[in-house]
Amino acid sequence: MKFNLSEVTDLIRSRRTVYPENYSERQIQRDQLEQILNNALWAPTHGNTQPWRFVVFQGDSREELADFLAKTYLKITPKEQQKDSKLAKMLNRPKQAPVVVAVCMKRDPNRKIREIEEIEAVACAIHNMHLTCTAYGIGGFWSTPGPIYSEDVLPFLGLEEEDRCLGLFYMGYPKSEWPDGQRKPLEYLTEWKN
Ligand SMILES: Cc1cc2nc3c(=O)[nH]c(=O)nc-3n(C[C@H](O)[C@H](O)[C@H](O)COP(=O)(O)O)c2cc1C
Question: What pLDDT is stored for residue 93 in this prediction?
Fold first, then answer.
């Protein structure tokens, strides 16, 4: 065995979504953030296009993110569907986390790889971030609010027309218990063929 499989399995199974409401004030250090992002880069990438891009919001820039989310939510959501609770999350969550990373997919100019595969590569990068957070005891939350799919996200994050934002990845140390998870057993999900 090249690695300690029981530790690797523990790490994978311990990865949990921890929401910003449950983060403490404890800061995440710059070297930790760099480790988290450097591990993201080692996700699989078809054709080695390395389509991931990151915009890191910390300090006062989290306010700009909150403003963007709230403003865009109100713009893209019909009035009768707008909910105060959703708007409050857009406004509050960025400030409840010491760091939020917008994780984006940069479309390769040669289009040599299908878009879905570029998206899949970035999803794997986000997973690497989440696993690395778990190793530090940092909670993560992959958030996909409506505004990240709006056209206004492109200028906000400095993206071009065919690029996409795949999510906001919130990080913070939990202020209470690490959450439990649940999964369906493998036998319900697998067909074995011989
Ligand atoms: C592509 C993707 C988008 C997600 N977007 C949201 C989201 O917008 N809001 C949310 O509460 N959770 C979101 N999640 C997190 C899931 O809710 C979470 O993974 C699920 O509840 C399982 O919990 P666990 O991550 O602790 O295993 C997202 C997960 C994925 C893979």
Answer: 98
Whether the model clears a pTM of 0.85, i.e. scores above it, the answer is yes
Ligand 1 atom, smallest distance to 123 CA: 1
Q: Distance, CA 86 to ligand 1 centroid (Å)? A: 16
Q: Residue 48 belongs to what domain range?
A: 14-175
118: domain CATH number is 3.40.109.10
Q: How far apart are CA 102 and CA 145, in angstroms?
A: 12
Q: Which of 131, 142, 143, 168 to mutate to test the pocket of ligand 1 (most atoms within 8 A of CB)?
A: 142
DSSP per-residue letters across 53-85:
EEEEEETTHHHHHHHHHHHHHHHHS-GGG--HH
Q: Residue of the nearest CA to atom 30 in ligand 1?
A: 142
Question: Which are the contacts of 61, defined by CB distance < 8 A and separation ≥ 6?
Answer: none
Domain contains 19: yes
Domain count, the chain: 1
The pLDDT, as a whole number, for residue 148 is 98
| Backbone conformation region of residue 109, classed left if phi is above 0, alpha if psi is from -120 to 50, else beta | alpha
Counting from 1 in the atom list of ligand 1, the atom nearest the Cα of 126 is 31
